[in-house]
Amino acid sequence: MNHAGEVEGIAVGVDADGENIPAVVIAARAELLPIVVTADQARAIQLAITGDAFERPLTHDLLVEMLTEFGGAIDRVRIDDVADGTFYAKVDAERYENGEPQQFVFDARPSDAVALAVRVDCPIEISDVVLDEAGQPPERFDFGGGSGPEGVDDEPNDLDDFSEFGDER
After folding, report:
1. Whether 64 contacts 121, CB under 8 Å
2. pTM of the model
3. Gap between the Cα atoms of 127 and 165, Å rounded
4. How many CB atoms lie within 10 A of CB 37?
5. How far apart are CA 146 and CA 110, in angstroms?
6. pLDDT, tens digit, 9 for 90 and up, residues 23-42
């Protein structure tokens, strides 16, 4: 079963070596799912969340623009599997040709799927398999009562040790 997910924000945790690592945090099924991402991926997602424009189109902006120009649309993204600590995602899209819808499913890194979803405001779904493996109780996180939605700051937040959380590829 899939559950509706909502991006809570970008947070910063520490790995086993004490190094800061960013993660996108998604709320689903009354749990929080942190997905470790690179600094560039975190920035791309954060820019879309805050609505800040980059000087030139970022890759995700370009992809959305191209898809739209070719008559396509992203319907939803799914984070649907985790294996050996790696998350997997799908992007469900459609395009109309001669008045008939054509459905497409693309494999994606979760960070790319989330970056697209926040740009086009489409649903994000998280599977039970993923939440059972990596979902965390909200009290494990300290969002610091920031100024953004649900207490999330516009800047990255400090979180607990991320060393046990999955990577995304």
Report:
1. no
2. 0.81
3. 16
4. 24
5. 25
6. 999 999 999 999 999 999 99
